């Protein structure tokens, strides 16, 4: 009787461990995030231009427990509101992945000419975009812009940009494509 009880307990423990391993491999853990604050917008070719904007950044981050044996890349999805307007024209959420060896989620949209790189901890992002003639964010300018969050000054924004640049081949490539200096 005692042996049967021990065998049953061991079978239950082994099945729990196997279940945890399978879930850790195939199903990501999900964490919600939300942040509001000030971002800084830079304009390509106009180094003296810079303005602050109100930013609300929220969404869900999914990551796998076993990094070495994960089935898929970690992911992120959510919304970014700038001065009360969604950064995406179609009111959709962004989707991004964290590629192996990178420190930023890539949530870029070629359809909207938008590059969006989000830090692995989902506390900051860098976004380059085209502000159209209708000035959807109300900053009084149109053209190629870059939003850096969080940043309350040009110095903070540039510091975050120079910190991110060597860590993100996507950002390096995109800035070269845009001839951003």
Low-pLDDT regions = none
In N-to-C order, the SSE pattern is HEEEEEEEEEHH
Query: Alpha-carbon distance between the termini?
Result: 77 Å
| Proportion of strand residues | 35-45%
Give the proportion of residues in helices. 10-25%
Secondary-structure-based class equals: alpha+beta
Radius of gyration: 21 Å
Shape: elongated
What is the residue-averaged pLDDT? 81
User: Care to count the β-strands?
Assistant: 9
Largest sheet: 9 strands, antiparallel
DSSP helical segment count: 3
What's the topology here?
Layout: H1 2-26, E1 29-43, E2 46-63, E3 74-82, E4 85-86, E5 94-98, E6 104-106, E7 115-119, E8 125-131, E9 143-149, H2 154-164, H3 169-177
Antiparallel strand pairs: 1-2, 1-9, 2-3, 3-4, 3-5, 6-7, 7-8, 8-9
Task: Describe this structure as you would to a colleague.
The structure is a single chain. With 181 residues, the chain is of the alpha+beta class. 25% of the residues lie in helices and 39% in strands. It is built from three helices and nine strands, in the order αβββββββββαα. A hairpin with a 2-residue loop joins β3 (74-82) and β4. It is elongated, with a radius of gyration of 21 Å. The termini are far apart.
């Amino acid at each position: 009787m005692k042996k049967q009880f021990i065998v049953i307990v061991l079978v239950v423990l082994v099945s729990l461990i196997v279940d945890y391993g399978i879930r850790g491999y195939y199903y990501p853990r999900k964490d919600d995030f939300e942040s509001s604050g000030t971002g800084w917008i830079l304009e390509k070719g106009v180094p003296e231009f810079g303005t602050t904007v109100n930013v609300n950044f929220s969404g869900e981050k999914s990551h796998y427990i076993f990094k070495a044996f994960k089935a898929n890349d970690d992911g992120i999805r959510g919304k970014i509101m700038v001065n009360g307007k969604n950064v995406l024209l179609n009111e959709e959420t962004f989707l991004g992945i964290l590629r192996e060896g990178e420190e930023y989620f890539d949530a870029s949209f070629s359809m909207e000419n938008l590059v969006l790189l989000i830090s692995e901890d989902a506390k900051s992002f860098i976004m380059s975009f085209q502000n159209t003639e209708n000035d959807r964010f109300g900053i009084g300018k149109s053209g190629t812009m870059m939003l850096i969050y969080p940043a309350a000054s040009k110095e903070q924004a540039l510091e975050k940009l120079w910190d991110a640049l060597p860590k993100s081949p996507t950002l390096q490539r995109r800035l070269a494509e845009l001839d951003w200096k």
